[in-house]
Amino acid sequence: MVTVVELLSLLLVSVLWGCTNPFLKRGTEGIEHVQHNNRVSQLLAEVKFLFLNLKYLVPFLLNQSGSLVYYYTLSTTELSLAVPVANSLTFLCTLFTGKLLGEEFGGKQAVAGMFLTMAGIALCVISSIDGKDAEKQNITQAAH
């Protein structure tokens, strides 16, 4: 059965991933102006640009902490629940954060997609709860 802690962990992962995506995008602004002669020095210059840029580094570290929480959550949660819930909620958090930062939202189709996503998440959670209850009933009936 899915616990409240597992669901909250997946929500935390989604918020950490989704809310940092628009900030990561903004933190990379200006990287196209980094120019070097060969590929190795270009790569090193871009890495230096990103990791010395706090507008990129702070969201990056928060995003990576979300990955740590995700890997821990995967050890206790069913994959059939954890992966779709985390990824779809991440998408929603990215849309909401982007909208708050003034990015284009996508109109009616994006809203319809969000509702369909939420319906799908609800079905995943409900089926996970019902599936565990049915397994417990089958085990109890087999024991008698």
Structure class: mainly alpha
Report the count of strand segments: 0
Distance between the termini: 22 Å
Low-confidence stretches: none
How large is the count of helical segments?
5
CA radius of gyration is: 20 Å
Q: Strand count, sense and closure of the main sheet?
A: none
Q: Name the helicity range.
A: over 70%
Shape: globular
Q: What is the residue-mean pLDDT, rounded to a whole number?
A: 86
H/E element string? HHHHH
As a percent range, the share of strand residues is: under 5%
Oligomer description: single chain
Q: How would you briefly describe this protein structure?
A:
The chain is mainly alpha-helical and 144 residues long.
Describe this structure in words.
This protein is mostly helical and 144 residues long. Helices cover 81% and strands 0% of the residues. It contains 5 helices and no strands. Helix 1 runs antiparallel to helix 3, helix 1 crosses helix 4 and helix 4 packs antiparallel against helix 5. The longest helix is centred in the C-terminal third of the chain and has 37 residues. The radius of gyration is 20 Å and the shape is globular. The relative contact order is 0.16.
Strands, helices and their partners?
Blueprint: H1 4-27, H2 39-51, H3 54-74, H4 79-100, H5 107-143
Helix pairs in contact: 1-3, 1-4, 4-5
What key phrases describe this protein's structure?
144 residues, mainly alpha
